[in-house]
Amino acid sequence: MFSVQSVSLENTKAFNKIVCDYVSGSLNKMFYEHEYNLNSFERVIQTRNFELHKRLVLSNKLSDQYGSLLTEKDAGLVNKNINLLADEKTFTVTTGHQLSLLTGPLYFIYKILTAIKLAEELKKKFPEYSFVPVYWMATEDHDFEEIKSVNLFGNKVEWSKTSHIATGRISTDGIEQFTEQALALFGNSLNNASEIVSIIKESYQPSKTLADATRLLVHSLFKKYGLVVVDGDDTEFKKQFKSVIRDDIFNQSTFKNVNQTNAELEKHYSVQVNPREINFSI
Predict the structure, then answer these.
(1) Are 271 and 164 in a shared domain?
(2) CA distance 44 to 50
(3) What angle do CA 23, 28, 29 make, to 5 degrees?
(4) What is the H or E stretch that residue 95 is in?
(5) pLDDT tens, position by position, for the chain (282 residues)?
(6) What stretches of the chain show up as alpha helix (H) in DSSP?
(7) Residue 67 lies in a domain
(8) 20 to 30 A from 97, CA-CA: which of 138, 148, 260, 273?
(9) Same domain, yes or no: 118 and 252
(10) Single pTM value for the model
(11) Does 141 share its domain with 175?
(12) CB under 8 A, 24+ apart: contacts of 143-150
């Protein structure tokens, strides 16, 4: 028999003080709106109201982004969830991460699993609503140096490429040497190694973009849970966001608000986010 023991977040030493304080309820409430418990989601649901045309844009564009992936016989739950996004009683549980090669650090996987699990728990608590787990790809992040390598079984494998454009737009041409080096480390002894190798080979084909490759990789790993992958680098999506973009450029509201919050945070915590005056660029 197994013995199960609970360990507090603070005792894991894996989370900083502000996260531990929020989870424990000791964080000053001026820094957040909802408490860390399932009951808070009832209030969240009541305050979320998305216009139907925006829901339709999201659902239709996601169908376009996925294309033929939705015709796979085991992609039914993903297709269902994309269609559910057009329904006013559907909400998302969203996580996000950079386009790390082969998912990169393990918390890439943990983030997605947490979103999936929370969506399941919310459906149990609020059965009259639907909850869709979402992975938002940081396709417009420019820090390619941060994602171009991965540590596998104690070995660093790196894609010998240089890029300064949005990472989602990077072509996977020339990635073959990276994937060959990575796959050579898997061997045949690992459980499900052959399946994982097959998924990686299929995902990182030349002549794709890194966004397309990451979508296929994540979709292959999590489609049975209905995870929906979003690429925000899309003209139609950005049109829905134009009032925020305009405000940021002309009023610098984000810069002012975050700096104001930081001034209060740094009295007790290490500040982690320092905004720019304008957070958009061509």
Answers:
(1) no
(2) 13
(3) 85
(4) strand 90-97
(5) 678 888 888 888 888 899 999 998 999 999 999 998 999 999 999 998 899 999 999 999 999 999 999 998 889 999 999 999 999 999 999 999 999 999 999 999 999 999 999 999 999 999 999 999 999 999 999 999 999 999 998 999 999 998 889 999 999 999 999 999 999 888 766 667 788 889 999 999 988 999 999 999 999 999 999 999 999 999 999 999 899 999 999 999 999 999 999 999 999 998 888 888 988 766
(6) 9-12, 17-24, 40-47, 52-66, 76-84, 107-125, 144-147, 176-184, 193-203, 210-222, 235-239, 242-251, 253-265
(7) yes
(8) 260
(9) no
(10) 0.91
(11) yes
(12) 143/98, 143/167, 144/170, 146/98, 147/98, 147/99, 147/100, 147/101, 147/104, 148/101, 149/101, 150/100, 150/101, 150/102, 150/103, 150/104, 150/182
**Does residue 158 share a domain with residue 48?**
yes
CA 72 to chain centre: 23
Q: Are 192 and 255 in contact (CB under 8 A)?
A: no
DSSP 113-166: HHHHHHHHHHHHH-TTSEEEEEEEE-TT---HHHHSEEEETTEEEE------S-
By residue count, the chain amounts to: 282
Structure token pair of residue 30: 């001026």
| Number of domain units in the chain | 2
Q: Using only the alpha carbons of the chain, give its radius of gyration.
A: 21
25, amino acid identity: G
Q: Is residue 4 part of a domain?
A: no
- Joined together, the tokens standing for residue 157 give 């494998």
With vertex at residue 203, the alpha carbon angle to CA 201 and CA 204, rounded to the nearest 5 degrees, is 70
